[in-house]
Write a structure and sequence with these properties.
The protein has twelve helices and no strands. By secondary structure, the protein is an all-alpha fold.
Amino acid sequence: MIKKKTRQKLRLLLLNGIFLVLCLSALVPILYALSMALSQSGSGLSSGTVLFPEHPTLENFRIILFDKPFMTWLKNSILLSGGTVLIAIGFAVWAAYAFSRYRFKGRKTVLQLLLLLNAFPQILTMFAIFRLMKTMNLLNRHIGLAIIYAGSMCIFAIWNLKGYFDSIPIEIEEASKIDGANDSKMLLKIILPLASPAIIVTAVMVLIFVWNEYLFATTFMLSEGNYTLASGLYQLQTGDYGRNWPLFSAASILVSVPVLIIFFCIQKYMVSGLTAGGVKG
């Protein structure tokens, strides 16, 4: 019995050690990017790989923040991400609830078609969307880009939220109807608070997609004043002879900071199962 417990402890210790090594290995690229950002200009292609520069400097961060239109790109990304999240989640919540609770003709067919549309690469629709936006005078305008992003991410949001709505016990809704609540009041006062973890996590996933997307942003945003952070980073490296990898690394780290802050803020919503026991009480 003692040997069995010892073997279990050794196995658990070995498993934890493997996970620790994997986590530390995943941090190596991040540490290298931070080291590159703190390095002097021109050291990106130097021989050797070091995680800590000999002469660290914050000059690259100063150039990005004050000499480049980084704050303009940040403002554009915040407006575009916020608008896309509002549009996509606003439509997805109602559609996901309808697909979850109501049984109407063609329901499964519509869900399968949405899933099929989401399977095609976005680049296949690039030319058609470009012509459509040009016809509607939406080129180089953030509202046009927000509509494209919301349309593509709304499918993901619908499927993700539908699965969460399916897990909410129907007895909760039946009890609220017995108490006299109509469908709108029941959805706003009962279902949405219960589904808030899934809604918040889905909204963050949509935001991250918009935050990092550069293919449509670089194609449809034609002036530097309308660039997002992703397209701005792309423009930093478009020169054939002027590539500055320490500067690019500093900008990449600054772009990642808002997303990291958001993840730290929503940690408590990442745990599911808030509706467990809601009927038993």
